[in-house]
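TA notes, week 10

Several of you asked for a full example with nothing omitted. So below is the full record: structure tokens for the whole chain, then the designed sequence directly under it. When grading your own attempts, check the secondary structure regions first.
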């Protein structure tokens, strides 16, 4: 077979041509840029109103109803007031409507992202000298934005970060959250500009599942104190899960009976409704708004039963109405959280793109991953000016959207209008809502992630390495911290791949009878060995890290180390010459000369050719080429020929550049074969 000759590409000219093309500006290019950057301009004029509007309105209303209680509940995870969660839900839906390419995903608050934001907020509050105890009874207020209801009302002069104005705990907390969100959005936009979406490839399914499950355990642990109504400090740093549980058991005697009873009732109602909804979802036109019903009933009971005043049950407090004037995130705070924003940006992007791709495949359309990165980036950058925190796509809400007939992101606008209605008029009505009810909503929403524990046996049967990656990532995320857990998961999964390539499967092949095919002699029955030929398969790239394993496996399976054999021969030849010089016809072993010749080779070498099956070797580095050159030379000294079979073009090119076939490639046809059978036939024809 003759290789095609490829014309050399002048990369400099190609780069200059691309640069000139990208820098040119014409009306057509400007229009295309705007249409690509705002995909809504493409699909909205083609919107089939009669066909789509009912499904979009219904799904938008349902998601809006679900968003309100979730937004209020997830504010506990983020360590912020509920009003900021509502802002986040509103702006994220509007911006993704304009910039997103997925028709179905629901972008907004997400428990995992809220937890990551809350951990950074808590750490910075602690460093700034604030008290993290948010369980103090809220002061009564009129529900306006001017009334700053803070559990820690001590003003704090923020000269530590270069801010000269005095700022309370809530002000500083949302300042940290918006700075973190802005930086995460900037990272995502930069990743989109430089097309770094490939970073998401390093987050395997096992890593993401383990990370989500470990973080779910952390979320559950953080909500237990609200469930039973105890007042313990919010733990920070590594080992937060263990420390929190220790504090819970130390203070279990202080549990608030009212909160315990309320939590038990709410969990039973929520879980029962969820299970019934899952069982009869094919009969229901839309999911039951159980969370909203629970919140309304619990708020009415708490208000008229005066649970806060009589039983000291912790409640949400005043939620203001309207919008706070926009404010630029503080630059000095950005510097403090710049490193924390990186994992937040990656996790937010990965969850959004993976969900977008999953539903695009299900409903037969395409998305643009790079545009998704821009969309989620601006869903963080723009809302950060309006006192919002980081967002991402959420699987549970997306499943609800699709099940209720969602066709386009018009449903996101409807959901935003529902949230806006709460923001402008209804928010103060949730003043008496108990925090334990919000904790119940959060915990029940974790059912999907916690059910991953049931999948461990099945996962183990499918792939033991992936199961180990899941366990390590989950453990590190839960027991150390979420950010460290994500990093540990990525590093550990990459190490597993490296280890698998360092010690891959190796085998000697036998011939399938009456065919020209060859397979592993240890795995298949009734294979016939080829006389005078050994066929060796190495199932991995050959590079510096597995060079020694390649050689050891080859020597072990062929039962011949050419270096030891050559050294042994030289040793006996030297001894033989010494005895002959002395005129002694008997050797040092007391044997005759003829007998010594037999002793030079301890056993008969049972092959004269070694065929290396390179079908699984995807690439060679310099060390790999030198290794093949080394075995070629060593076996040649023993009069054993080395033949390569099934090499891909990349491997052949590496061998050529490394001088394996000589300077003029004259012996290439006698050393390289396109099938194992051709190599075997050639070896049999050799003398």
């Amino acid at each position: 077979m003759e290789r095609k000759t490829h014309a050399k590409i002048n990369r400099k000219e190609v780069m200059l041509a691309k640069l000139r093309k990208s820098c040119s500006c014409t009306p057509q290019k400007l229009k295309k840029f705007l249409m690509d950057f705002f995909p809504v301009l493409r699909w909205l004029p083609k919107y089939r109103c009669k066909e789509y509007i009912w499904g979009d309105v219904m799904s938008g209303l349902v998601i809006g109803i679900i968003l309100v209680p979730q937004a209020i509940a997830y504010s506990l995870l983020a360590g912020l007031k509920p009003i900021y969660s509502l802002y986040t839900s509103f702006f994220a839906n509007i911006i993704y409507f304009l910039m997103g390419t997925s028709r179905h995903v629901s972008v907004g608050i997400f428990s995992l992202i809220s937890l990551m934001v809350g951990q950074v907020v808590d750490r910075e509050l602690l460093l700034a000298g604030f008290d993290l105890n948010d369980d103090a009874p809220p002061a009564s207020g009129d529900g306006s934005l001017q009334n700053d209801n803070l559990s820690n009302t001590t003003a704090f002069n923020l000269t530590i970060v270069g801010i000269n104005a005095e700022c309370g705990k809530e002000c500083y907390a949302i300042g940290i959250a918006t700075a973190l969100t802005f930086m995460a959005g900037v990272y995502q936009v930069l990743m989109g500009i430089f097309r770094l979406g490939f970073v998401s490839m390093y987050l395997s399914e096992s890593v993401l599942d383990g990370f989500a499950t470990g973080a779910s355990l952390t979320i559950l642990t953080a909500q237990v104190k609200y469930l039973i109504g105890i007042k313990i400090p919010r733990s920070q740093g590594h080992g937060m899960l263990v420390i929190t549980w220790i504090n819970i058991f130390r203070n279990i005697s202080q549990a608030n009976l009212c909160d315990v009873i309320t939590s038990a009732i709410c969990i039973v109602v929520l879980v029962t409704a969820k299970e019934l909804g899952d069982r009869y979802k094919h009969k229901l036109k839309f999911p039951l708004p159980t969370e909203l019903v629970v919140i309304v009933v619990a708020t009415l009971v708490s208000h008229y039963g005066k649970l806060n005043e009589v039983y000291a049950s912790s409640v949400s407090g005043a939620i203001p109405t309207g919008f706070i004037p926009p404010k630029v995130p503080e630059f000095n705070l950005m510097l403090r959280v710049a490193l924390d924003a990186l994992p937040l940006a990656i996790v937010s992007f990965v969850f959004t793109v993976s969900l977008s791709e999953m539903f695009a495949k299900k409903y037969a359309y395409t998305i643009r991953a790079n545009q998704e990165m821009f969309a989620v980036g601006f869903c963080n950058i723009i809302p950060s000016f309006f006192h919002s925190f980081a967002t991402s796509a959420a699987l549970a809400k997306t499943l609800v959207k699709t099940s209720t007939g969602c066709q386009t992101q018009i449903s996101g606008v409807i959901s935003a209008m529902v949230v806006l209605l709460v923001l402008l008029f209804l928010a103060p009505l949730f003043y008496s809502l108990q925090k334990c009810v919000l904790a119940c909503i959060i915990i029940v929403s974790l059912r999907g992630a916690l059910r991953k524990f049931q999948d461990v046996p099945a996962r183990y049967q499918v792939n033991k390495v992936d199961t180990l990656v899941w366990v390590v990532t989950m453990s590190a995320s839960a027991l150390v911290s979420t950010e460290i857990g994500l990093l540990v998961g990525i590093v550990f999964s990459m190490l597993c791949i490296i280890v698998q390539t360092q010690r891959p499967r190796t085998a000697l092949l036998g011939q399938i009878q009456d065919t020209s095919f060859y397979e592993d002699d240890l795995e298949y029955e009734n294979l016939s060995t080829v006389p005078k030929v050994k066929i060796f398969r190495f199932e991995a790239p050959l590079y510096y890290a597995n060079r020694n394993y390649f050689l050891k496996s080859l020597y072990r399976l062929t039962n011949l180390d050419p270096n030891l054999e050559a050294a042994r021969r030289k040793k006996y030849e030297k001894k033989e010459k010494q005895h002959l010089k002395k005129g002694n016809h008997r050797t040092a072993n007391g044997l005759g000369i003829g007998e010594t010749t037999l002793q030079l080779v301890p056993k008969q070498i049972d092959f004269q050719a070694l065929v290396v099956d390179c079908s699984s070797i995807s690439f060679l580095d310099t060390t790999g080429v030198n290794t093949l050159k080394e075995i070629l030379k060593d076996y040649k000294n023993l009069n054993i020929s080395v033949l390569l079979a099934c090499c891909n073009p990349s491997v052949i090119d590496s061998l050529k550049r490394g001088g394996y076939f000589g300077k003029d490639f004259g012996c290439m046809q006698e050393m390289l074969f396109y099938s194992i059978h051709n190599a075997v036939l050639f070896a049999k024809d050799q003398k």
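The chain has two domains: 51-132+169-227+239-318+330-498, 506-568+603-685. Use that as a sanity check on your answer.
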